[in-house]
Amino acid sequence: MKYYQMDAVMDIIFPAHCPVCGQILSVPKRRLRFISPFQMHPPILQELICKPCFYRLPFILESHCVICGRALETPLADRCEDCRRYPHIFSEARAVFSYKGPVQQALYQLKYQGRKEYSRFFAATMDYYLSDWIDSRCITAIVPIPLHKSRLKVRNYNQAEEIAVRLGERIGLPVYSDFLIRKKATTAQKDLSRTQRMENLSQAFCINPKYIIPSAAAIHSLGSILLVDDIYTTGSTVDAAANVLVNAGCPTVFVAAVAVTG
Ligand SMILES: [Zn+2]
Ligand SMILES: [Zn+2]
């Protein structure tokens, strides 16, 4: 059974809520599709959010940093101040939203309040807004940023993985959720400086030994990898993960995030 089919079943038992205002979404069309299996396909973006809330979303439109995807205030620059100052290990990152207002709240609920169902809305937005970019980058596999097992135990699911598996299903790319392991339980990053973040993250990730054996050739055969995470802040988390992949021989690492901080 596919993820969107399992989601459709869950919808019948627990009707889906709008990720922004929390109202129950009307699902008659989706239920009909569930009854007729031959017409089944993942829900379209507009079915996963109510109309007024859709128009409140802080989408990143034309002017964004060519490296990290952050919205730019001046359309004359091609990269943000952060990327001009610090190089990254990944090649390019893109995000759908600026991390503020309704998106910030919805991501908080997905992450800390058990609203796992919102992952399909975010996967649908990534599909809609980033699939052309993903297609043009010849990406062959998706790897979500893993949680440390102690954190996974508390939250029950990894929000990045929930988004990644649904995105992979929509755009037809394989998802390797266990490819990276978070071996260090890093402390919360948000109040740390850049240097402290890098310190905090060095040695945080490793490749799951099952992908290293029998040889590094297995990694080469994967080609370019798309790392998926929920929030991009300074890029130090995805850089730490990209570093492990590049050292193992992965040619290029791209990053897709739901939202990027301002
Ligand atoms: Zn709403
Ligand atoms: Zn940037």
Provide an overview of this structure.
The protein has about 260 residues and is α/β, with parallel strands linked by helices. It has one domain (about 55-185, about 205-260): 3-Layer(aba) Sandwich (Rossmann fold). The chain is built from twelve helices and six strands. The protein has helices at about 5-15, 30-35, 50-55, 80-85, 100-110, 120-135, 150-155, 160-170, 195-200, 210, 215-220, 235-245; strands spanning about 90-100, 140-145, 180, 205, 225-230, 255-260. It has a four-stranded parallel sheet. A two-stranded antiparallel sheet has the order 3-4. Helix 6 (about 120-135) packs across helix 8. The longest helix is centred in the middle third of the chain and has 19 residues, at about 120-135. The termini are far apart. The site of one zinc ion has 6 residues, from loops.
Helix and strand topology:
Elements: H1 3-13, H2 28-35, H3 51-54, H4 81-85, E1 92-98, H5 101-112, H6 118-136, E2 139-144, H7 149-155, H8 159-171, E3 180-182, H9 194-201, E4 205-207, H10 209-212, H11 217-220, E5 224-232, H12 236-247, E6 253-260
Parallel strand pairs: 1-6, 2-5, 5-6
Antiparallel strand pairs: 3-4
Helix pairs in contact: 6-8
The structure holds zinc ion (2 copies).
